[in-house]
Amino acid sequence: MKMVNVHEAKTTLSALLAEVEKTGKRIFICRHGKPVADLVPHKRSDRTTPHPIMRAIGIKYDPTEPLCPDEWPEAR
After folding, report:
1. Phi first, then psi: what are they for 35, rounded to 5°?
2. Among residues 1, 7, 40, 64, which one has the fewest Cβ atoms lying within 10 Å of its Cβ?
3. What domains appear along the chain, each with residue ranges and CATH number?
4. Smallest Cα–Cα separation from 35: which of 5, 73, 63?
């Protein structure tokens, strides 16, 4: 875990980005010794894999089944 102050982050941003890209480790940007931001590698999401919470949802009916006449909303 690397910590840099704001001034150092501003002057060496390109080098810090290259380091994050190369190592994959996060860098903390601090002001007065307290972390205020994280510089982290970008993580691409896999859109073909469902989220774990969404995977737990089950549908107990056929969503393509047509509605019965009594399930249609009343006309106004």
Report:
1. -60, 135
2. 64
3. 1-42 (3.40.1620.10)
4. 5
User: Per-residue pLDDT tens for 17-76?
Assistant: 999 999 999 999 999 999 999 999 998 877 888 888 888 888 888 888 888 888 888 877
DSSP secondary structure letters along the chain: -EEEEHHHHHHTHHHHHHHHHHH---EEEEETTEEEEEE-------TTSPPHHHHT----S-TTSPPPGGGSPPP-
27, 16 Cβ separation under 8 angstroms: yes
Supply φ then ψ for residue 14, to 5 degrees.
-60, -45
